[in-house]
């Protein structure tokens, strides 16, 4: 027992299914071959007819008992042991790759098998195969697997994988059969969900919120999309609970209309207080403006930013702010706390916000909004820890034409930029770096600045570390033609006149980042363009990216290309790695695993 524990630690496994999911990387099968199969591993009964040495190599001719054909073998590395083993007249079961050369059967360097008719799994782990085999024999039993909640087909498959009677049942041409893989996917999803379940901690809410959002919605200048309505309805149910404080994450692409959902939530909380935290002061300011524009006059709104407060936050019904909120000691207790663009906060900031949310036994309702689309499978997994709503559509189809371009297209690009500026539209050019670097085969922001400034009027420049970023952006919004920036500059404000973006060295960026950047243009329904500038001729990943604008599809694509190795910006979230499960494709598997788990817990 104690011994097993140590081995489990070495293997870093925590559950029975973790152990069952340590799958053999291959098998050693000494079952006699029924037919001779060329090009494959054969296990054959053979008698030594002849033995000779030719140019230092041992040559043996066997007679195959079953087919009565002859087979010759060459041993390149021989020891006296080999000579003795393959004495003329001796009988063997030999194993090796069978080839045919000019009608003669050949098998180079065959092994002489001692124990015939045995299939031994080969596990590639940090411990010895014999150790892992005995752990598996001890714990991965029919009974234990049933107790984990698996059905008879899954149990049978796992047992066949670990204790195969006939290799073809599970394995075909060096790979697991599709039906085996499907079971492994399920078990993997099921095991992961099981671990997450029970980790969710819920607390009673400060109070049930039953405010009325209907009149607010009726007075909006547009009709809500189906998905906006659905999310609002979900939140309404959440907030009406006093027993359980809401914990929800609303994930919707840039431009999917999350702000209205935030404002509707404020109305549902009213006359009780709400707080909204935003990652930048620009965004906080923008939300403040939108709140003032859409919320009814009786809702008192305040803004909290370092040194630039607006309104009296101690009296307000709705307080919007940056993380400066965290340092306000006299911030009134809110019944609803929200975070916009949650994905842009650091872990530390999120933690201090948690503190803001969880002062007492009773907690405010808590809703986070994120613009980083995740595959539905991942959302289903994460919903074990908190409720997740997805908004996968945008209110109006944005027309953004995406194209990959290279050096030869530059004159055309210049012409296009001139055309857009002539129509009072704005252009954003993203450079990979501020300063030049030997590692990056593209111009930097500094190097190219002069070119643009000579050619165009009202060129603005900013980047992530720029102290005056906000002023530059605000001024650019008012009167700029071209904005030069780096990827780090997350443009927090909407720039409605932006219709053309050029991303230099696009192949260096993850699809999620490219998608965020592309989301900057065409926000007001103006026809827009996204040019992916790259030195490399053809990039399949970028080509695929040009074909879709849906963030949820892109999240799937991103998973597909995750191993392709050309992603340098590190924006890809280190999600749970699965060996069998494909988070982009296996939605159904996760759904089935989830409902199984629901049925047994
Ligand atoms: P997000 O925060 O999800 O990126 P916003 O809430 O800023 O998106 O919405 C983007 C734009 O779409 C805003 O100008 C908003 O007023 C508008 N909008 C939101 N919902 C709708 C709708 N149902 N119909 C039309 N326009 C909408
Ligand atoms: Mg938003």
């Amino acid at each position: 027992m104690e011994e097993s524990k140590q081995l489990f630690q070495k293997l870093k496994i925590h559950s029975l299914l973790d152990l069952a999911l340590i799958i053999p990387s291959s098998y050693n099968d000494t079952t006699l071959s029924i037919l001779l199969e060329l090009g494959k591993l054969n296990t054959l009964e053979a008698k030594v007819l002849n033995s000779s040495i030719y140019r230092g190599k041992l040559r043996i001719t066997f007679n195959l008992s079953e087919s009565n054909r002859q087979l010759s073998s060459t041993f390149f590395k021989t020891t006296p042991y080999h000579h003795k083993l393959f004495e003329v007249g001796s009988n063997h079961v030999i194993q090796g790759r069978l080839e045919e050369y000019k009608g003669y059967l050949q098998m180079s360097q065959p092994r002489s098998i001692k124990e015939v008719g045995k299939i031994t799994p080969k596990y590639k782990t940090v411990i010895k195969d014999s150790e892992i085999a005995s752990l598996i024999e001890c714990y991965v039993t029919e009974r234990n697997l049933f107790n984990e909640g698996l059905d008879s087909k899954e149990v049978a498959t796992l047992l066949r994988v670990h204790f195969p009677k006939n290799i073809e049942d599970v394995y075909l041409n060096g790979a697991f059969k599709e039906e085996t893989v499907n079971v492994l996917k399920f078990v993997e999803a099921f095991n992961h969900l099981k671990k997450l379940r029970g980790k969710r901690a819920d607390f009673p809410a400060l109070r049930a919120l039953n405010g009325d959002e209907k009149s607010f919605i009726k007075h909006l200048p547009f009709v809500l999309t189906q998905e906006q309505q659905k999310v609002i309805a979900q939140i309404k149910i959440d907030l009406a609970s006093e027993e359980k404080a809401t914990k929800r994450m609303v994930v919707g692409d840039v431009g999917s209309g999350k702000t209205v959902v935030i404002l509707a939530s404020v109305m549902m909380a009213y006359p009780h207080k709400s707080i909204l935290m935003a990652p930048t002061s620009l965004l906080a300011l923008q939300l403040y403006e939108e709140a003032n524009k859409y919320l009814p006059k009786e809702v008192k709104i305040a803004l909290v930013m370092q040194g630039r407060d607006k309104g009296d936050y101690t009296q307000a019904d709705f307080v919007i702010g940056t993380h400066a909120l965290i340092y306000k000691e006299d911030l009134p207790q809110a019944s609803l706390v929200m975070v916009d663009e949650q994905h842009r906060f650091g872990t530390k900031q999120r933690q201090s916000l948690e503190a803001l949310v969880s002062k007492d036994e009773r907690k405010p309702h808590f809703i986070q909004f994120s613009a980083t689309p995740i595959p539905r499978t991942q959302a289903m997994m994460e919903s074990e820890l908190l409720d997740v709503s997805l908004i996968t559509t945008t209110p109006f189809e944005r027309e953004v034409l995406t194209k990959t371009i290279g050096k030869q297209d530059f004159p055309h690009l210049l012409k296009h930029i001139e055309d857009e500026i002539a129509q009072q539209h704005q252009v954003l050019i993203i450079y990979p770096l501020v300063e030049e670097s030997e590692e990056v085969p593209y111009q930097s922001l500094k190097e190219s600045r002069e070119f643009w400034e000579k050619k165009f009027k009202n060129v603005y420049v900013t980047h992530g570390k720029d102290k005056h970023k906000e002023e530059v952006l605000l001024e650019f919004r008012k009167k700029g033609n071209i904005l030069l920036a780096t990827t780090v500059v997350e443009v927090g404000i909407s720039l409605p006149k932006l219709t053309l973006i050029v991303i230099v060295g696009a192949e260096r960026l993850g699809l999620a980042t490219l998608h965020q950047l592309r989301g900057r243009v065409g926000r007001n329904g103006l026809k827009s363009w996204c040019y992916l500038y790259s030195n490399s001729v053809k990039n399949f990943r970028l080509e695929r990216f040009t074909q879709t604008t849906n963030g949820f599809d892109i999240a799937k694509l991103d998973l597909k290309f995750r191993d392709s190795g050309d992603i340098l910006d590190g924006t890809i979230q280190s999600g749970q790695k699965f060996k069998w499960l494909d988070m982009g494709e296996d939605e159904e598997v996760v759904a089935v695993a989830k409902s199984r788990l629901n049925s047994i817990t």
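The first strand starts at residue 26 and ends at 29. The chain has four domains: 2-29+117-176, 41-112, 214-391, 400-548.
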